[in-house]
Amino acid sequence: MATTSEFAEIAALTGDPARAAMLQALMDGRALTATELASVGSVAPQTASGHLSRLLAAGLISVEKQGRHRYHRLASPAVARMIESIMQVASGQRRGGSRTLATGPRDSALRAARTCYDHLAGRLGVRIADALIGRRRIELACDAGLVTPAGIKFFGRIGIGEEILAGEGRRVLCRPCLDWSERRPHLAGALGAALCSHSLRNGWIRRLPGTRAVAVTPKGTRIFREEFGVRLD
């Protein structure tokens, strides 16, 4: 169990506006350079390097070296869950006397469909989870889930690997993740990550530049309707 000082250290690290912006930028699951993260955090490259060193030392991010470049990503799904939870709490707070701001086009796109670290979120993610539960392909409890025999057959048919469905590896196979915009769970865990990458690889969804939002392609609209029972209109 974390000590009070450890708790305070993590809270302080995530509480800085520049570091918070960098962590949110990494929530789409991709790795970014220090230069890219400096731009996101609106700080000088030298300042960004200091922030990233502190995040690395605390275990919130990891670094991958590729040639002369260093790429930063969130250290684990647990870190992503923490950030998503903070976003959920923050979005529900009303500051005294402030008016609720109307969401712009980017916010609308994020609410419709986005990545939450490495799995699908927003209305798309929640509707997929609802459809999988409704057709008894998965079961989700408070912080756990399972894939039913019908689900194993279904995911195998659409091309999700048997090694994932067998639960190989350390990561939890199937669990809920509370969606900060929909206030209902979407699918996370190894299965959620596999479904997201499978959707991108097969052209069911595509990333939108400069944001975590994704767009559902015409092919994806058909697949989600016919295979999952999800209607997006």
Write up this protein.
With 233 residues, this protein is an alpha+beta fold. It contains eleven helices and ten strands. It starts with a helix and ends in a 5-residue tail after the last helix. Strand 7 (175-178) and strand 8 form a beta hairpin. The strands form five sheets. The chain has a two-stranded antiparallel ribbon. The chain has a two-stranded antiparallel sheet with strand order 3-4. Mean pLDDT is 86; it is low at 96-106. Helix 3 (34-41) crosses helix 4.
Descriptive terms for the model:
16% strand, 11 helices, two-stranded antiparallel sheet, alpha+beta, 233 residues
Total DSSP E strands: 10
Strand order of the largest sheet: 1-2
Rg: 18 Å
In sequence order, what are the helices and strands, one letter per element? HHHHEEHHEEHEEHHEEHEEH
- The average pLDDT value, as a whole number, equals 86
Q: What is the multimeric organization of the chains shown?
A: single chain
Instruction: Please give the share of residues in helix.
Output: 40-55%
What is this structure, in a nutshell?
With 233 residues, this protein is α+β, with helices and mostly antiparallel strands.
List the helices and strands and how they pair.
Blueprint: H1 4-15, H2 17-25, H3 34-41, H4 45-57, E1 61-66, E2 69-74, H5 77-92, H6 105-112, E3 114-116, E4 119-121, H7 122-134, E5 138-140, E6 145-147, H8 149-158, H9 162-165, E7 175-178, E8 185-188, H10 189-201, E9 205-207, E10 214-216, H11 218-228
Antiparallel strand pairs: 1-2, 3-4, 5-6, 7-8, 9-10
